[in-house]
Design brief:
With about 180 residues, the chain is α+β, with helices and mostly antiparallel strands. It has a domain of about 120 residues: Cysteine proteinases (Cathepsin B, Chain A), CATH 3.90.70.10. The chain contains six helices and nine strands. The strands form two sheets. Strands 3, 4, 5, 6, 7, 8 and 9 form a seven-stranded mixed beta sheet that branches. It has a two-stranded antiparallel sheet with strand order 1-2. A hairpin with a 4-residue loop joins strand 6 and strand 7. The protein is globular and about 65 Å long.
């Protein structure tokens, strides 16, 4: 039997007093620091854990409702807005927008507008229903036929031609003070 045995220690900080550098075991923060190799080894064995609230939004209308409520000072989660309301193929229905916004203590209504350009600027921001069950927030009209919009897919404000918005517009518009859901 040999006197030389090899022991393996688990990834993580070395035991007190062990390790490189000037750490003599008296600094607990330094002793607890992970080595780069430990971090890479741990990362290679784990999948990303992304909370549902930060994952890609699968329901643009519900996202727009929650975002609009927040913009108007009535922050509320998508879960709270949709709780107990019927879904269609797992997605929020436009006809439930007014009920959902009541939960954020906001009044809203669906309004039919054949063209985006006919939406009264005083009702902005509003939610536009788009083709392929999409939705966006129309924030304001800009000079030279441009509009400022906010979408869940692109995550941020964008300036686009009103004609481009019109091409994707499916109606209706939701409005609350600003929540106008326009219908074609």
């Amino acid at each position: 039997m040999s006197d030389s045995t090899v022991t393996s220690s688990p990834p993580g900080p070395p035991p007190d007093g062990a390790g490189a550098g000037t750490n003599s075991g008296t600094d607990p923060a330094a002793a607890a620091a992970l080595k780069p190799g430990d971090v890479l080894a741990a990362a290679a064995t784990q999948d990303w854990q992304i909370p549902p609230t930060q994952a890609a939004v699968e329901d643009p209308l519900l996202w727009c409702l929650a975002t609009l409520a927040g913009l108007l000072g009535r922050a509320i989660s998508m879960t709270a807005l949709s709780a107990g309301l019927p879904l269609s193929n797992g997605r929020f229905l436009p006809e439930n927008a007014t009920r959902a916004m009541e939960r954020a203590e906001m009044r809203s209504r669906l309004i039919r507008r054949p063209e985006v350009r006919t939406i009264n600027p005083i009702t902005l921001p509003c939610i536009l229903l788009l083709k392929n069950r999409g939705a966006c927030l129309l924030l304001k009209f800009l000079p030279e036929g441009q509009a400022r919009i906010l979408t869940s897919e692109e995550g941020g404000e964008h300036t686009v031609p009103v004609a481009e918005v019109q091409e994707q517009y499916a109606g209706p518009v939701a409005a609350t003070r600003g929540l106008e859901l326009a219908l074609k």
